[in-house]
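Hi team, as promised in this morning's meeting, here are the two structures we talked about. I've kept the exact order from the run log so nobody has to guess. The first one is mostly here for context; it's the second one we should focus on when we meet again. Sequence first, then the predicted structure tokens.
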Amino acid sequence: MKYIIFATAIAALFGTDPARVAAQPVISSYTSSAPKDCRMIGKPSELDGGTTRICPGKSGLVLLVSEDDLREVVSVGRNRQAAAKEPAAQAWFGPFSSTAHTVEWRIADGRPFAIIQRWLIADNSEQDKDGRPSTKAMLAVTRLPPGQVCHVAFVDVAANPDANELARQAADNFARAFKCGKDEVRTIGQSGRTTSLTKR
């Protein structure tokens, strides 16, 4: 019941008809962004070991994963060049960051319209037993073409036991109508430590 209320509220907030959203069959499908499942582009940077790889996606889309200075960015496009031009290709976070290798694609009528990925953000205010920054988990919802590719919502995993469901609700209800560069990326559910860590 709470998810229906949440979906209705999100739909109302972004001017989406809840009945239309509910009527569309939406499914999840998964791919891998692990290096072993992707094609590496060039050689690692001699300066910091930075890498770029292209990973198979859904419906002819590919995932571009670039790491530089221990910070990853992830974008999507029909090819490497298209993905590199999207806003998502410049969406790095201030602290060191990396992504888990499972990519969830939200698909309606056979077309993917958003991806959900788990990010690990370094928290320099806390250290693990080896003296390295601890990491905080966050789910990022990213909209897909048609239109630009960019983050639309963040969900703090520790603060929200139902983080996966919240991310899916956010993807389904407003990713398609989100305008990159105009609309503000939203924190969905309860705010947590990652809310401040995602700010540059």
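And here is the second protein, the one for discussion:
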Amino acid sequence: MKNDKMKNQYRVNEQIRVREVRVVSEGGSTVMATRSALEMAREQGVDLVEISPNAQPPVCRLIDYSKFLYQQKKHAKEMKAKQAKVEIKEIRFGPQTDEHDYNFKLKHAQEFLTEGNKVRAYVFFRGRSILFKEQGEVLLLRFANDLEEYAKVEQLPKLDGKKMFLYLAPKKAGVVKKSQQKMDREKREAEARSAKDAENGVEEMPTNGGLLANAKVSAEALKALKGEE
């Protein structure tokens, strides 16, 4: 039934009864009498297929009709498969979600987005918890900010009944790049840690093979290790 429907979608050869048509090919397009186009199709051993009947004049291609239908079916199947791959995954929060639960759901959202799925995160306000809607909005905005490397915001937090929704779409596939904002924030945090360590007299402890990775001791302990008083 599907094949018959597609066959009836296009007019072919003598079914095309307009006076002239525009024949398109890889080399360009030419407007000619329909009779001339039919003769050209017969000479090439192909069909004259009308692909755009509403154009002025109608647009046609010189192609084997069976091959044309196969290409159309293949294209439709690919488009359907592509649409089916994009799913919307839901992440649910409460207005007072604890840090452990938040990080757990953040990790799942990263996985969903990396796989090419969209994410609909929402805060559900049960009963009187609707009084904490501002807190729910802050949570969703933090969620979007923490996922900025993986997603773009399609819709900012919006209250709908007892739920506040945030919609995220995956960024283009490829290597995940840090945003400038993220890099600046990490740089500030690193500088703040260095300044705090300097205040507390914290230094890296040397070893025979170089510096012990991430190991730090106080200046007093370092002096003791060197045998200094």
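Starting points for discussion:
Residues 174-178, 202-226 have pLDDT under 50 and may be disordered.
The beta strands are 20-25, 28-33, 47-52, 59-63, 88-93, 118-124, 151-160, 163-170, 202-207, 210-218.
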